[in-house]
Design a protein that fits this description.
With about 230 residues, this protein is mainly α. The chain folds into two domains: about 140 residues, no CATH class; about 25 residues. Helix content is about 70%, strand content about 5%. A hairpin with a 7-residue loop joins strand 1 and strand 2. The longest helix has 28 residues. The chain starts with a helix and ends with a helix.
């Protein structure tokens, strides 16, 4: 039993390096494709000064891409999703003959897919990723806690150590995701109905409509000046 567990741990350790290339390329593709969704947004305000009359909120610049915390959380979601899928498939294939772990394998793969979707939503600046990311973080933390408890109660010494490592990394990834959606939640908000139409349209179309509106306003002004009753 100990030899089988050792071989399984070696296989899982090797699979930890396999998804790096896939996750990095997937992250880069999604981040570059949806970078314009972040361009032009105001950076989070920074509080400067101290005291009731000297403190102020300053917006340092406009964003060119997603904030660093959002990108870090998205990259973590991409890697952890790929790693968990590969690891759970490996565990299912290697240990299904000895232990009835099929429900845990299916649950782990579903959680991994949700984590990957959360990473995509972060880079796409989806409006619903704040609520979805919080749910995914809670589910990931609960799933990791369940695995740690099962590892100590059922697996004994052979499974408690890898379960503890998996639980710590899962909790760290869930905390990073929750922190990203909490600190940058206003950036994911949908435009309000009172926002000008130009913010909802492409820049070239907004400029064309603005020029047409200006020409029409100039025509009405000139017509009112030249009318007989003016």
């Amino acid at each position: 039993m100990a030899a089988a567990v050792s071989l399984l741990l070696i296989a899982v350790a090797l699979t930890a390096f396999l998804p790096i290339t896939v996750s990095v390329f997937a992250y880069a593709f999604v981040e570059v494709r949806h970078r314009r969704a972040w361009a032009g947004l105001a950076s989070p305000a920074v509080r400067v000064g101290h005291g009731p009359y000297r403190a102020a909120l300053v917006v340092p610049s406009r964003l060119l891409r997603a904030p660093l915390l959002v990108r870090a959380a998205a990259l973590g979601c991409f890697y952890w999703s790929w790693f968990c899928v590969v690891a759970w498939v490996t565990v299912g294939v290697a240990a299904s003959d000895r232990l009835p772990i099929e429900p845990l394998v299916v649950m782990g793969i579903v959680v991994a897919i949700c984590v990957g979707r959360a990473g995509i939503g972060l880079l796409r600046r989806d409006a619903g990723v704040v609520a979805f990311g919080r749910r995914v973080a809670v589910v990931t933390a609960a799933h990791a806690t369940l695995l740690v408890v099962l590892g100590f109660l059922v697996g004994g010494c052979d499974w408690s150590a890898p379960a503890a490592v998996f639980g710590v990394v899962s909790l760290g990834q869930a905390a990073l995701l929750a922190l990203a959606v909490r600190d940058h939640a206003p950036l994911f908000a949908r435009p309000s109905d009172d926002e000008p139409v130009g913010h909802l349209l492409p820049a070239w179309l907004a400029r064309m409509l603005a020029r047409q509106a200006q020409r029409r306003a100039n025509f009405l002004v000139n017509a009112s000046h030249t009318s007989p009753g003016a």
